[in-house]
């Protein structure tokens, strides 16, 4: 029996969809059977980041309105046999999706998958309620910005009313040099305010955007910092204890040489 | 001059105190009040005298108190200042207790959440920015106060707000509001806010100073002593 995890944040643009795609990929890399569900009807993105946009025939609303079977709407990933995507509808009316409908779909998927990751739309209205309805656990994504932390706090409050388990936190897009200067909230401060368990931290990495634009989640790349961070988070979801990644960028030999010659501080 | 069977009158500098026996019937008592007052006429130009009535262990309803006031007012230049009884209804006692009890809550008040209670609040946990706690009495927070706290919400200006770490976005006591300075300052550990005597604004001080400015923090005791 699988586990349904909703990935949410309250605020938009903090990286819910990217996180969903990369955690899905990372879990698939660890040989888990994973299904991603995009619930952002009208503004679907998960298929784009996964590079599966051109394969969509049916979507989640078609499933709910019985125009197709759930197996027909699921899209198999190009790279893995154990990774599937249930895309959101782009054109249909938003109200077609209901919490009951979500629970139905998730209950149907659970026996066949180890993990079901639900990508939640921004906001706390109907879309959020739908996404959260069928989930067993929740992951809250935030960035080290005040507004984002504030919204995460709000979402955690709402989640606590619904879920038995307290949600876990991912701090995304950390820019180490800004944290060091005190221009950005540091992770400890965020965790202290939100007072929930930290699942992982992800550095702000150009590779993420580059990879997303190619329709290939960054988690595939063996060495990028964000990729390692996502894969570590996936291992933590499986119950392993993995130490947090240091945010310090490794000094390369060339950096050291430059430093000696005073070209770089 | 009739003898006073049930009522003892004592004069003090502040006025008269009528001690009323609590074992006779209410009618007897009223009769005697009438008698006493009609017997003692006072000069027209004498100033108003305040009267305090001690009922002992007798409970009277609001209507009864009203009749008593009327009788006294009707006869002379007397004004009833207060009617004191040593007993109250269980119902009222429970209400007092509820209004003055310390309510313990153990959670984080997050953005968008509001915790409203009657009585004093002891919160073990933080109030995050955007969160709000409201109490009719005092507010004590063992944690970080980063949101809004409103003490004495029903108008009690004596209420205080204390927190282990004080960095509120707004403090309210009764009808007075104060907000944090616009400069994004750090908070202060172990601070409290209260309204100084006759003051019109909320003052911040160390928690230890409360012992001086609010020696009688225990509201229930205060209530029992003063009604």
From TrEMBL, chain A:
Source species, domain of life: Bacteria
One GO biological process term: division septum assembly
Residues spanning the signal sequence: none
Positions bound to ATP: 11-18
Keywords: ATP-binding, Cell cycle, Cell division, Nucleotide-binding, Septation
Ranges annotated as spanning the membrane: none
GO molecular function, one term: ATP binding
GO cellular-component term (any): cytoplasmic side of plasma membrane
Record bears the keyword ATP-binding: yes
Domain CobQ/CobB/MinD/ParA nucleotide binding, residue spans: 5-218
Keyword field contains ATP-binding: yes
Family per record: Belongs to the ParA family. MinD subfamily.
Protein task: ATPase required for the correct placement of the division site. Cell division inhibitors MinC and MinD act in concert to form an inhibitor capable of blocking formation of the polar Z ring septums. Rapidly oscillates between the poles of the cell to destabilize FtsZ filaments that have formed before they mature into polar Z rings.
Protein name: Septum site-determining protein MinD
Organism annotation: Gracilibacillus boraciitolerans JCM 21714
Lineage: Bacteria, Bacillati, Bacillota, Bacilli, Bacillales
TrEMBL record, chain B:
Keyword line: Cell cycle, Cell division, Septation
GO biological process terms held by the UniProt record: cell morphogenesis; division septum assembly; regulation of cell septum assembly
Coiled coil: none
Lineage top rank: taxon: Bacteria
Septum formation inhibitor MinC C-terminal domain ranges (all copies): 105-204
SUPFAM superfamilies with a match to the protein in the record: Cell-division inhibitor MinC, C-terminal domain
Pfam families, A to Z: MinC_C, MinC_N_1
Residue span, Septum site-determining protein MinC N-terminal domain: 7-83
InterPro entries named among the record's database cross-references: CAP/MinC_C, MinC, MinC_C_sf, MinC_N_1, Septum_form_inhib_MinC_C
Assembly: Interacts with MinD and FtsZ.
NCBIfam families given in the database record: minC (TIGR01222)
Its job: Cell division inhibitor that blocks the formation of polar Z ring septums. Rapidly oscillates between the poles of the cell to destabilize FtsZ filaments that have formed before they mature into polar Z rings. Prevents FtsZ polymerization.
HAMAP family referenced in this protein's UniProt entry, alphabetically: MinC (MF_00267)
Family: Belongs to the MinC family.
Full protein name: Probable septum site-determining protein MinC
Record lineage: Bacteria, Bacillati, Bacillota, Bacilli, Bacillales
